[in-house]
Amino acid sequence: MDYQELIEPVINISKKAGEAILKIYNSSDFGERIKEDKSPLTEADLASHQIICSELEKLTPEIPVLSEESKNITFEQRQSWQTYWLVDPLDGTKEFIARNGEFTTNIALIVDGRPILGVIFVPVKNTFYYGARHYGAHRIIAGQPVEKIQVRSVPLEQGEKHYTVVASRRHGLDKVEALCQKMSNVDLTSKGSSLKMCMVAEGEADFYPRLAPTSEWDTAAAQIIVEEAGGQIVKTDFSPLEYNTKEELLNPHFLVLGDSNENWQQLLKSS
Fold it and tell me: Which of 46, 79, 121, 197 could form a cystine bridge with 14, CB 3.0-4.6 A?
């Protein structure tokens, strides 16, 4: 299978799910409830889940789908999956509820424990980010022509490096600030959902440390986009971030790194 041929249909699936999300976003009732893990769930999460899973099953009936809202898929079932779709139908449900627009749909194709294709859609901005192995990373803003995106070199100001660090608005900000304390010239900004990783991929930020819990569906689509843009997503020991290797679907803490010429390991050790 030529996985690059799946990009356009997956973009269309993301768009369809995003339209369903926006319909609920613009209504007066989100149908909000609380899941067993204490995280919020809305009718938009469920509508997007149903659309994405149904459409992916039509597109590639031979490839299983694992979504955040999937039920009763055990590790015993999925540990033999060499290829599968990994979906977050609404990444940033708290941002959705807050009506700040910082939420996305995330669809990734995993092969042998690594993402090889990813599409992220930002419904409020009608913006897509996508990438595939050996294909590059790209962005489409509100129907404009496709742009190739890449991480940036850390900018210099008066001969000194000036880092833009992006962090979660809701999780682990104190740990991020401590990590960056010894880095000179740091601007710290906050953003919701997978948009933080997209900011590194498109050269709007240099570094995103995630030092609070996430799940595998939160990172998979963004990981291939960041990697194809020239960056990295790694564990805090700088080993690769991998998928479907254990029963729980929680990620370890991780780092999203831009500029490939930066000695991040040395820099962060000294921090």
Answer: 121
* CB of 124 closer than 8 Å to CB of 22: yes
Dihedral angle sign, alpha carbons of residues 49, 52, 56, 59: positive
Q: In the chain, where does the domain assigned CATH 3.30.540.10 lie? A: 3-149
The CATH fold assigned to 156-269 is D-Maltodextrin-Binding Protein; domain 2 (3.40.190)
Element of type H or E holding 253? none
- At 58 the three-state DSSP class reads helix
For residue 21, how far is the Cα from the chain centroid? Answer: 17
Residue 124 · residue 136 · CB < 8 Å: no
DSSP H/E element including 119: strand 114-122
Higher model confidence: residue 172 or residue 98?
98
- Superfamily of segment(s) 3-149: Fructose-1,6-Bisphosphatase, subunit A, domain 1 (3.30.540.10)
Instruction: Single out the residue of 190, 168, 191, 165 nearest to residue 179, CA to CA.
Output: 165
- For the cut 80, the answer to whether the pLDDT of residue 38 exceeds it is no
If you compute the radius of gyration of the chain from its CA atoms, what whole number of angstroms results?
Answer: 18
pLDDT above 60: residue 213? yes
Using alpha carbons, select from 100, 86, 94, 119 the residue that is nearest to residue 44.
94
Q: CA dist 37 to 30, 42, 95, Å?
A: 19, 14, 18
What pLDDT band is residue 10 in, cutting at 50, 70 and 90? very high
Rounded distance between C-alpha atoms, residue 219 and residue 241, angstroms: 9
CB 219 within 8 A of CB 70: no
Q: Say what the pLDDT of residue 180 is.
A: 81
Indicate the length of the chain as a whole number. Answer: 271
Q: Report residue 158 as tokens.
A: 């008066």
pTM above 0.85, yes or no: yes
